[in-house]
Amino acid sequence: MRRPAQPEQGIDCLSLAPRERGLRDREFSQRIKDEIFSAEKETPTLHTIAYLGPEHTFSHLVARRRFPQNRLIPCVSIAEVIAFTESEEDRLGLVPIENSSGGMILETVDLLLEEEQPLFIQEELALRVHLALIGHGGEPPQIVFSHWAPLGHCRRWIEKRFPKVELRVAASTSEAAWLAAKTPRAAALATREAAAATGLSILHYPVEEGIVNLTQFVLLGRKKPSPGGRETSLVFSLPQEPGSLCSFLEVFRTEQINLKRIVSRPVPGQPNTYVFFVSLEGSDEEGPMERALRKVEQRALRCRSLGSYLVQAPYES
């Protein structure tokens, strides 16, 4: 949490007394000021963390695991997370960027591609998603609620066990749990925490289809990330001419830099014009990446680094 007001108030009070006490008191006052500023500088800031809510979603689970002591703010959309994060330097935002079953989270990508967007990626986090089927117990469910991604991932598992079940899309896994709690003969694909929050029973855990279900998140902030990053992400646009993308990517091949992901998105209002998002293995503190970034800046119409950042080991849900 930021505490800018307290040191200033203390300094003002100290400055009133020594005016008539001579140099010694002024030196003492200055020494106290220096100690206050030094203590404030050394006190770690607990950032406020915005995440895609509501509570008891997988985003909330990752936020709590990564920041157990911080204030967590649930937001209703990815756009709201990013707007909240942009407004203050001591705020961070956690948003999903890719799911191993559903692909890229395009809302996140589109917001990162905006030209005036001031944020950097601070970390990449991941969650191995293990879904729970939660419900009232007793008779088999007639309706299963969930977010579209879990429904798609588990559709065959559900239909195999409950052939006549109706699948209904909810805004989040948390909302799905609350809908199921209010609906007779209903269940939800959600977190185990959502079952505890809504009073539902865990009917089956984990709901697996034999396919790894990994969701990756990025932690965003206004400051450049700390040194020691393992991956670098770029946003860029290219001239409308043959071979421009090939020429851009060739730089990274030459420097033996591995391309982790690439996404192209249309520029609103400009037909057949695209902007790209790429993630690369390596840090901009290293020679190969440093050389590559200098070269690609000359080949792009626009090229902005979102920073070199740490990649954390996946959490388990």
Automatic annotation (TrEMBL):
Q: Which GO terms describe its biological process?
A: L-phenylalanine biosynthetic process
The protein's matches in Pfam families, at most eight in alphabetical order, are given as: ACT (PF01842), PDT (PF00800)
Q: What is its EC number?
A: 4.2.1.51
Q: Which GO terms describe its molecular function?
A: prephenate dehydratase activity
Pathway per its UniProt entry is: Amino-acid biosynthesis; L-phenylalanine biosynthesis; phenylpyruvate from prephenate: step 1/1
Residues the UniProt record annotates as site (Essential for prephenate dehydratase activity): 215
Give the catalysed reaction(s), semicolon-separated. Answer: prephenate + H(+) = 3-phenylpyruvate + CO2 + H2O
Write down any Gene Ontology CC term. Answer: cytoplasm
**Enzyme class, broadest EC rank:** lyase
Domain ACT per the UniProt entry, residue ranges: 233-308
InterPro entries the record matches = ACT-like_dom_sf, ACT_dom, Chor_mutase/pphenate_deHydtase, Preph_deHydtase
Prephenate dehydratase domain span: 48-222
Keywords carried by this UniProt record: Amino-acid biosynthesis, Aromatic amino acid biosynthesis, Lyase, Phenylalanine biosynthesis
- Put simply, this protein is called prephenate dehydratase
Q: What is the lineage of its organism?
A: Bacteria, Pseudomonadati, Verrucomicrobiota, Methylacidimicrobium
